[in-house]
Specification:
Mean pLDDT: 94
CATH architecture of the largest domain: 3-Layer(aba) Sandwich
Order of helices and strands: EHHEHEHEHHEEHEHEHHEEEEHEHEHEHH
Number of domains: 2
Shape: elongated
Structural class: alpha/beta
Number of helices: 15
Radius of gyration: 23 Å
Low-confidence stretches: none
CATH superfamily of the largest domain: Phosphoglycerate kinase, N-terminal domain
CATH topology of the largest domain: Rossmann fold
């Protein structure tokens, strides 16, 4: 790729701008409820501190949409993030009162070697998402060296991920970004076989690009979640009240035909846990191709879960993106948790999990330490595996 890593950059005593992904959930009383994303960037931040860089961190939080009247809304402020980061690194973190401006400039200029500042929410400025040149130049004026460690935003051409890199002479990627590129890149190269892809979630339209690009690489595709309903209906199934993308039936048929012609085994649900709705306290197991008219498929059934687990147990390379059902609801979490258990138990396999819901399922199951790599970027990991060039990565090329 021709991208330097932070380890190769001269950062000692210099102003190092690190784009991080601190878009974390907050509690109602303004505390960080899940600090996973903050922790993921700690190796890069700590390395920068150890090398004596003057560290300027920048992130977005939520969707304030660049409106100045949202700046007073505490749910968009990075103040609790700065507090949590300070606890984790055991040092002060100076938070600016705005992403750019006189106040931010003073904080940056006052930094000494090894000190850390965090710019206030980048999306308080409309220039961030618009990739505005004036805003990009303002951010770049804080930096001698630029590092992107926010893989979750690498598929967005924003000021802090693309625009400002044109105005900084030295740039590279952080340790988290490097790890993401390494493991996702492995899936697009030569891998140990069998290579099994497990794809779930709601919509075929969100995943068809990945399915198509992986078709020439994988040995087997396991499809679950609501998107499986569209494939089942495309094969003539009766799906009752299940979520189905009727306008994607032809796309589903074309994919199944292509897979069959390529000798790729596609496993679809044989049974499902169905109920009247997601609020139902329980579901019942029915045939996946014959969902009763008054019910909707909300999870893969036990027979399907066993079949998927069996296929996963034989795999040497695994990619999983998307839950098998409405796993947030206890009655419909069984299929997703069964897949999580199977992936975690696949001895000796390279396992990569990407996407918010499947990552949440892995953490919920307590099996995160059994996975080779858990990606921090849902949309970014999908676009990477589609073979697309991510703007945030392309901007780092020398």
């Amino acid at each position: 790729m021709g991208i330097k890593t932070i380890s190769e950059l001269d950062i000692g005593g210099r102003r190092l701008f690190i784009r991080v992904d601190f878009n974390v959930p907050l509690t109602s009383d303004g505390k960080v409820s899940d600090d996973t994303r903050i922790r993921e960037s700690l190796p890069t931040i700590k390395l920068a501190i150890e090398k004596g860089a003057r560290v300027i961190l920048a992130s977005h939080l939520g969707r304030p949409k660049g409106r100045t009247d949202n700046r007073s809304d505490k749910k968009y402020s990075l103040e609790p993030v700065a507090a949590r980061l300070a606890e984790l690194i055991g040092a002060d973190v100076s938070l600016t009162d705005e992403p750019v401006g006189d106040g931010a400039r003073k904080v940056v200029n006052d930094l000494h070697a090894g000190a850390v500042a965090l710019l206030e929410n980048l999306r308080f400025s409309p220039g961030e998402e618009a990739n505005d040149e004036t805003f990009s130049r303002a951010l770049a004026s804080y930096a001698d060296v630029y590092v992107n460690d926010a893989f979750g935003t690498a598929h967005r051409a924003h000021a802090s991920t693309v625009g400002m890199t044109k105005f900084v002479s030295e740039k590279g990627m952080g340790l988290l970004m490097e790890r993401e590129v390494k493991f996702l890149g492995k899936l697009l190269g030569e891998v140990e076989r069998p290579f099994v892809a497990i794809i779930g979630g709601a919509k075929v339209s969100d995943k068809i690009g990945v399915l198509d690009n992986l078709l020439g690489r994988v040995n087997q595709v396991l499809i679950g979640g609501a998107m499986a309903n569209t494939f089942l209906k495309a094969k003539g199934g009766k799906l009752g009240r299940s979520l189905v993308e009727d306008d994607k039936l032809a796309l589903a048929r074309a994919f199944l035909k292509k897979a069959d012609e390529s000798g790729i085994d596609v496993l679809l649900p044989r049974d499902a846990v169905a109920a009247a709705g997601t609020k139902s306290e329980a579901g019942r197991v029915v045939q996946a191709m014959a969902i009763p008219e008054d019910l909707a498929a909300l999870d893969i059934g036990p027979e399907t879960a066993r079949g998927f687990a069996d296929a996963i147990s034989r795999a040497k390379t695994i990619f999983w993106n998307g839950p098998m059902g409405v796993f947030e609801s206890e009655p419909f979490a069984g299929g997703t948790l069964a897949v999580a258990q199977a992936v975690a138990s696949a001895n000796g396999a390279l396992s990569v999990v990407g996407g918010g819901d499947s990552v949440a399922a892995i953490h919920k199951s307590g099996l995160a330490d059994k996975i080779t790599h858990i990606s921090t970027g849902g949309g970014a990991s999908l676009e990477f595996l589609e073979g697309k060039k991510l703007p945030g990565l392309a901007a780092l090329e020398n």
